[in-house]
Every structure is written in structure tokens, then in C-alpha cells.
Design brief:
Layout: H1 2-13, E1 17-18, E2 25-26, H2 33-47, H3 54-81, H4 87-90, H5 94-104, H6 107-139, H7 142-164, H8 178-194, E3 218-224, H9 230-233, H10 235-240, H11 242-254, E4 258-265, H12 273-282, H13 289-295, H14 303-308, E5 313-317, E6 335-337, H15 339-342, H16 356-368, E7 376-381, H17 425-447, E8 452-458, H18 464-467, E9 474-481, H19 484-492, E10 496-497, H20 512-520, H21 538-550
Helix pairs in contact: 1-6, 2-7, 3-6, 3-8, 11-17, 16-17
Length: 558
């Protein structure tokens, strides 16, 4: 009985699976080749009269706990986030996660969680130590020991045979070895420490563009956090967002704009928004943090710099940025509006505090309404629709009132919003994206009949718990503009009229900036800069562009 309990318990620790899409686990009828191999070694050592010491049993218990943790991360992370864990890089964000928990949770809850984790680890260790004790005690019986030798030896041979001859299909009896997980993580660490130089950031530069097809219009690139293809592919999500899309479409039409849409494939899933941002702005696919850190050390013309060289004032609008960001110099912004610069006086909406609508309103007042300014190229990284998608700020129709001393008077500034009654993550996600589409519609109304090219891009799909199993990595892209020639050029390049894009992605996100630069180039197609709200000829439009660009000389670049 002791042998059976020990073998079952140790095997269970390294062969459980995720109960999708929760943090809980379930069992399957699979075997761990690592447990079989370890027991084979212990039984063989017993045959030679070399029994493990108590100290060795304690170390084996510690090893079992580490392997159990690795197994949990391996099977749970894809279910919750849609991607695997990279210990080297993801661990760097743990202090920020802990800071967020301390900031938004009552102290007693933080202590309860900490105590629970300590108790869980201690319980795992004690259980593992007890199982190894039962195992060694059972192996002292010669008949049980020899039976165990035959059993575990046969399993190891079956596993090796399956590796050498996949047609035998014996690998289906076994779970993925945890040692593979640790080997992969070690590889990540090695490449990070040694400075992997396989990323050639000098290749495939973003093409130059005279931007004349824009006609001097402001360009606002708005990365809508967690806006993924699930909002189109999931019938429930699409239905729940139908009204928000109608509101946005109505604002587009009423203000003299048109909209075209497409899909692109994000380099990340369920998180890691900065990978999507850097991929788009650099024109290189940045799929992990190692590539991201390497990119920031290189000299490369970004999309921001392409606009700067044509007289645009370039602005980064980043309400979620709470700390110094010196690496932001890589992109070449003239001005970055972070959480401190935006000076938000209202109640905090979750850990990120600042509602996207307020950030957009503050930017509009400081930059768009500035007298005698250069045309603006702005990249906004939104944050209100970040997981866990609550609490959600209300949308305020009066944009000017947002800039007063109490931008959200209906919310208790002392306590802040608490998110209300319990709701599902699906419902919270839909509400968050609906809020995003609504304030985008409101901003179009706020600007009115103005020269603007608005590009709305989803940075990645929401976590797999929301997007579902086997979801694509596609995200929607919408371009809103009044320039007829620009819209037609985008349609010729694969975009579709309206807010619903075709089901097939144009390609990876990092190719999108080059596509835009070619479309924006006045020499790339039909001459003239026709605009649905402007009947001027091509020549006056070019003159208007030059008059706005000339103002850029007054801008002091950082």
C-alpha cells in the first residue's frame, strides 16, 4: 500500500493538467517518465545496498516541489494568458504585480494571500517528504523492490522507444517531462545573459514617405488594449458589442469620415502589449522581451521618426506609464505624456488610475487646441481595457467637464470605484471594449469636422480565459479618415469598408507601418489629395500641408 501511495502521489505531482480556463488542475491517465526514472534509480541503489540519507530525501522533496511548480506554470499559463511563461523575463514584472496587489487590495487580503502561499509550499514539501519516506520504506522489501525495478524499467524503455520510433505511440502514455520546461527556461536565460545577436535590426527598414497623401492631417494611432479578434469571432462578444460599433459608425458618418478595417497578427497574446507597440513602430517582429531589450539598444528609424522628419510634432500619450522611461528615447517622441504629466485629479479607476477618455481629453486640450502648431503624429497606448477589465469608468459626453477639478463627480473620490457587484470576466471584458469604442466615437464628435486620420489597433487578444481555446492571434485595425484617396488606397491594399474586417489577416503586425507609409506617400499612386470634406485642388492641399509643416520649426525637439 505504501508503495502504491508513493508512486501515485509522486506521479500525480508531475502529470496533472489544467482545468481550462481556470487556475485549477485536474488529473489525466498519464505517467511521468521522470518519476519512473527516479524510482528506478532508487530501487537500483537499494539493490546495491546504497540507501539515500535523510538529507538526500529532504533535497529530493525540495526538487519535487520545484518540479511541481514548473508543471503548474507550464499547464496553467496558456489557459489563463494564451502563452507560455518565460521565467527570465516575466519574473522581472513580479515586483510590479506585487505592488499593484498591495495598492488595490486591503492589507489583510495581501497578508492572507502571502500566508496561503507559504502554507501551500510548506504543505507540498511535507507531502513530498512523506511520499519519499514511504517509497524508500517499501523498497526495503526485496520482492517489492524487484517488482518496482521491472515496472519502472519497462516504463523508461517504453518512453525511449516512443522517442526513437514515434509510430509505436507509447509517448501518448506519458505527460510532457518537466525537465524539458526547465531546459527551455535555461536556454532563455543563457541567450539573455550572453546577448543573443540573432535579431538584425538594420534589415528591412521602414520605407521613406513624403506623407503628402495625408494632406497635413493629424494622425492619431490608438492602441486599444486587449482589443482582439474575439470581438469579431465570438458570437457572444460580437453581439454584446453591436451597439457600441453602431455608435462608433454613426459618429464616423455624421462627422464626414469613412472607415476601413482589416486584421493583422499580433506578436503577443493575452499580455505583453509593449511587444505589439514596438513591432508596429519599428517594423520588426518583436515576439519576446529579449528581442525588445535588444531593439532598444539599436539605432533604427521608427514610424515616429519618419513623421518627425516630415515636420510632424510627435507625441506619445501613455496614461499607464508611472515611472521614468528613458528607453522611450529610442522611438523619437518630441513629447511623452505619462501619468505624472497628465496630472489627473480624479478618483482612481483600478491600479492604472487614469481613464483613457480623460487622457485623450487632456491631450486634445494641450496639443490639438494649441495655436499655430505643426501637424501631430500621436501614439496613444490605452489602459482602461487592461485585464482584469474592471473597475470601468463611466463615459462622459461633456469632454470639457473632464478637465475640471472633479472630472468624475458621481464617483466618491475618497473610496474610488470598486467595480460594483460580482460579474464574469467575459462581461467585464465586453464592457471594457465597449467603453473604448464609445470614447473613440465621442472623440470624433468632440473634434468635429477636422483633419484627422485615426488608426485604431488592437494590441493583442485578451487572456485565453476570455478568448477561448485555440484562439487566433489576430487583432482588428480600423482607419478613420475623410480623405477619399487615402481610403481608396487602403481598400486597394486589402482593407475593407466598414468596421468589420475580412476574416483573413493581412499579415503580421510589424508589416503594417510600412504598408501605411507607402499608402501615405503622395508619389505611390494617383496624384491629387481629394478630400470628401474639402473641394480644393491637389495643389492647394499640398500648400496647406507645407503651411502646417513650416510651423514645425518653432517646435523644440527633446
Amino acid at each position: 500500500l505504501g508503495l502504491a501511495v508513493a508512486l501515485f502521489g509522486l506521479n500525480l505531482a508531475l502529470s496533472f493538467h489544467n482545468l481550462w480556463p481556470t487556475p485549477w488542475v485536474t488529473t489525466r491517465h498519464e505517467l511521468s517518465v521522470e518519476v519512473a526514472g527516479l524510482v528506478l534509480l532508487l530501487a537500483s541503489a537499494g539493490e546495491l545496498g546504497r540507501w539515500p540519507s535523510r538529507a538526500m530525501l529532504r533535497w529530493l522533496a525540495v526538487l519535487a516541489v520545484l518540479f511541481t511548480i514548473a508543471r503548474y506554470m507550464e499547464v496553467t499559463a496558456p489557459a489563463l494568458y494564451g502563452r507560455r511563461i518565460n521565467l527570465f523575463w516575466d519574473a522581472r514584472h513580479l515586483p510590479h504585480v506585487f505592488a499593484m496587489l498591495i495598492d488595490v487590495m486591503p492589507g489583510w487580503q495581501v497578508w492572507m494571500i502571502a500566508a496561503g502561499l507559504v502554507a501551500l509550499l510548506a504543505g507540498l514539501y511535507l507531502a513530498a517528504r512523506r511520499l519519499f519516506g514511504l517509497l524508500v520504506g517499501s523498497l526495503a522489501d526485496a520482492r517489492l523492490r524487484r517488482f518496482t525495478l521491472v515496472l519502472t524499467g519497462s516504463l523508461v524503455v517504453a518512453y525511449m522507444a516512443g522517442l526513437l520510433h514515434p509510430q509505436l505511440r507509447t509517448l501518448h502514455w506519458f505527460s510532457l517531462p518537466v525537465t524539458v520546461t526547465y531546459a527551455q527556461q535555461a536556454g532563455f536565460v543563457y541567450r539573455a545573459v550572453t546577448g543573443d545577436t540573432t535579431l538584425d535590426t538594420e534589415s528591412n527598414p521602414l520605407p521613406p514617405s513624403d506623407l503628402m497623401r495625408l494632406g497635413g492631417a493629424d494622425v492619431l494611432v490608438l492602441f486599444l488594449e486587449s482589443y482582439g479578434a474575439t470581438t469579431l469571432d465570438s458570437e457572444a462578444h460580437a453581439h454584446a458589442l453591436a451597439d457600441a460599433r453602431k455608435t462608433l459608425n454613426r459618429a464616423i458618418v455624421q462627422n464626414g469620415y469613412r472607415v476601413v478595417s482589416a486584421r493583422v497578427r499580433s506578436p503577443t497574446f493575452g499580455g505583453g502589449s509593449w511587444l505589439a507597440h514596438s513591432s508596429f513602430l519599428s517594423g520588426i517582429e518583436i515576439a519576446d522581451n529579449q528581442q525588445y531589450q535588444l531593439l532598444l539598444t539599436r539605432q533604427r528609424r521608427t514610424l515616429v521618426q519618419r513623421f518627425a522628419t516630415r515636420g510632424y510634432r510627435t507625441v506619445g500619450l501613455m496614461p499607464g506609464l508611472k515611472r521614468a522611461w528613458p528607453e522611450g528615447a529610442f522611438y523619437g517622441y518630441d513629447k511623452i505624456y505619462d501619468a505624472e504629466t497628465l496630472d489627473y485629479p480624479g478618483p482612481a479607476f483600478g491600479w492604472w488610475r487614469i481613464p483613457d477618455q480623460f487622457a485623450l481629453a487632456r491631450f486634445d486640450a494641450l496639443e490639438v487646441r494649441a495655436p499655430r502648431r505643426a501637424p501631430l503624429m500621436t501614439v496613444m497606448t490605452t489602459i482602461s481595457s487592461h485585464a482584469p477589465f474592471r473597475p470601468m469608468p463611466p463615459y462622459l459626453a461633456d469632454w470639457q467637464a473632464l478637465l475640471g477639478a472633479q472630472p468624475y463627480p458621481a464617483v466618491d473620490a475618497a473610496e474610488g470605484p470598486q467595480g460594483g457587484e460580482e460579474s464574469s470576466m467575459d462581461a467585464d471584458y465586453v464592457a471594457a471594449i465597449g467603453y473604448g469604442l464609445t470614447y473613440v466615437a465621442g472623440y470624433l464628435k468632440h473634434r468635429g469636422d477636422d483633419e484627422l486620420v485615426l488608426v485604431v489597433i488592437g494590441d493583442h487578444q485578451p487572456p485565453a480565459r476570455v478568448s477561448g481555446p485555440d484562439a487566433s492571434w489576430d487583432v482588428p485595425v480600423h482607419v478613420v479618415a475623410g480623405n477619399v484617396e487615402l481610403i481608396d488606397a487602403l481598400k486597394a491594399g486589402g482593407f475593407s469598408e466598414g468596421l468589420i474586417p475580412p476574416p483573413t489577416a493581412l499579415g503580421p503586425m510589424h508589416q503594417l507601418a510600412a504598408r501605411f507609409l507607402r499608402v501615405f506617400d503622395g508619389s505611390s499612386g494617383t496624384a491629387g489629395l481629394a478630400n470628401s470634406r474639402d473641394t480644393e485642388s491637389a495643389a492647394p492641399s499640398a500648400t496647406r500641408l507645407q503651411s502646417r509643416v513650416d510651423v514645425a520649426g518653432a517646435v523644440t525637439r527633446r
